[in-house]
Design goal:
This protein has one domain. The protein is about 30% helix and about 25% strand. It contains five helices and eleven strands. The longest helix is centred in the C-terminal third of the chain and has 20 residues. It starts with 14 loop residues before the first helix and ends with a helix.
Length: about 200
């Protein structure tokens, strides 16, 4: 089934963007990350285990009742439990910060993660500061660090920054489903290696 594109501004379908976000998920998104500083987060994402009012782990069919989702890939790989969507019913902004793209991930038909992309160092800096305010400051990293993680009980986040372009890629994800994803990824890699 094809979902019509929203009218108005053209949608970003950057192959590099999708590859980066997929690769970040595939890597478990924590290689090279810095630990989060302890302290109480002010974000509702971790205690509520949700993003924009929808709980992580909610079935895709239930989410579609609230959000207009359009698949990023017209024909996902057969048997691949990871699906990526954008919302047709939202602006590309968070609290007034204009972002390049917001991608919604579903693993095993459950709401699993959100990818947030910023196009330049100014907006990436605002996103980084927002994550620090929401999840607590990062420790062991300098202002120039290109990978910072914030680990929560239910929800964690990581921001990767391209030091050359200033582009930022944040992933906010459910910890339980991240463990399931990593197990699936490891199994898929072993099956693939057996055929090499």
């Amino acid at each position: 089934m094809s979902v019509p594109m929203r009218s108005g501004a053209p949608r970003l379908r950057s192959t590099l963007l999708r590859r980066f976000l997929s690769a970040a998920l595939a890597a478990g998104f924590f290689w090279g990350a810095h630990p989060a500083r302890s302290g109480g987060p002010v974000s509702s994402a971790d205690p509520d285990n949700a993003f924009r009012g929808v709980a992580f782990g909610t079935a895709l069919d239930e989410v579609k009742k609230s959000w207009e989702l359009e698949p990023l890939a017209d024909d996902p790989a057969p048997g691949d439990p990871l699906r990526q969507f954008i919302r047709n019913d939202e602006t590309k902004s968070l609290g007034g910060l204009a972002v390049q793209e917001i991608v919604y991930y579903f693993f095993g038909e459950k709401f699993y993660a959100v990818g947030i992309c910023t196009p330049d160092s100014r907006r990436t800096g605002i996103l980084r500061r927002a994550l620090e305010i929401a999840y607590g400051g990062s420790s062991g990293s300098s202002d120039g660090a290109d990978s910072i993680a914030w680990l929560g009980k239910n929800v964690s986040s990581q921001l990767r920054i391209n030091p050359s372009t200033g582009e930022g890629r944040a992933l906010i994800f459910n910890n339980e489903l991240q463990s399931d994803y990593e197990a699936h990824f490891s199994d898929a890699a072993k099956r693939t290696a057996a055929e090499l």
